[in-house]
Amino acid sequence: MRVLVTGGAGYIGSVVTAQLLAAGHEVVVVDDLSTGHQDAVPPGAVFHELSTASLDPVLGSWAIDAVIHFAARSLVGESITEPSAYWRNNVSGTLALLDSMRAHGVGSIVFSSSAATYGQAVEQPIREDAPARPTSAYGRSKLAVDMALTDYATAYGIGAVSLRYFNVAGALRTPSGGYGERHTTETHLIPNALRAVDGGPPLQLFGADYPTDDGTCVRDYIHVVDLGDAHLRALGVVEPAAHHVVNLGSGAGYSVRQVLTAVGEVTGEEVPVIEAPRRPGDPPVLVASNAAAAQLLGWRPERDLNRMVADAWEFHRFGRAAG
Ligand code: UDP
Q1: Structural domain of 199
Q2: Does residue 196 form part of some domain?
Q3: What is the pLDDT of residues 290-302, one digit of tens each?
Q4: Residues 233 and 288 in one domain
Q5: Helices in the chain by DSSP H: which ranges?
Q6: Counting C-beta atoms within 10 Å of the first and last residue's C-beta, which end of the chain has fewer, N or C?
Q7: 101-140 residue pLDDT tens
């Protein structure tokens, strides 16, 4: 299959591009490099430095069978102070992509949606039919696209699968480096904890007074290789005129303190920690039901927390080089 990957120079997009190539697919990557890195695009993919909104003049000449759409702004805090960037990139950019797909007869899309569409869900683990009450412009932008996909499937026959990510971690290791997390603005727990172990600033632990077993927030962490595997499976179940929404989670979670313990075990160093106030907007627990993923995709995550931390640590120390 010839797959267009938008955002293929980013963290998850580069991992999935490498997995698609390894599975024998042809891949065309577009990325405007606003947050991605060109050297993260796996060799073997055709790369075009383009934004999603400017694909129309060229999409028709690429003979694309399916699109996996990662390109987006993805910082929750920034989305609250700069909503325009989120509505423009994530919503207008995706609508432009969908209209180009229609114009050029590309009928299948797998979309990176998010747990942020649910907001502060009352019932855990979260099922796909839980009420969607996003609390940020980021979450609302992802939900808006999910709603558009349903309408485009009904009216225009597009086939779509929205994959709702919870917490993604780890890296895809390759003999010459690998593909992992390289955000300029890093907000995520595991890379920040690894940086703290490696001589960076101490890890700020945002809130130790939550109503959880150890007082810290619980999240559903998935290894990026498992997450990528779900995308390849999703490509195989896309069907015309249907839009499936699927959570990618394990059904269980780890607390911030459990993550920090795993980082200590893997690196052999205790993580330097400063206890800090709660980070605004963090719900105590976010865990996904994985029943729909098991049923529709036959997918279940296989790699545990220590493996995520170990691969992220290897990538932190030896990554960067693509190959
Ligand atoms: N967290 C933390 N210190 C950090 C980064 C994150 O204590 O430097 C906490 C955060 O408050 C949340 C959990 O770790 O409870 C996971 O946060 P992350 O940003 O990795 O993912 P999110 O769940 O916000 O998508």
Answers
A1: 172-220+251-318
A2: yes
A3: 999 999 999 999 9
A4: no
A5: 11-22, 56-59, 76-81, 83-86, 93-103, 137-156, 189-197, 224-237, 256-267, 291-292, 305-318
A6: C
A7: 999 999 999 999 999 999 987 799 999 999 999 999 999 9
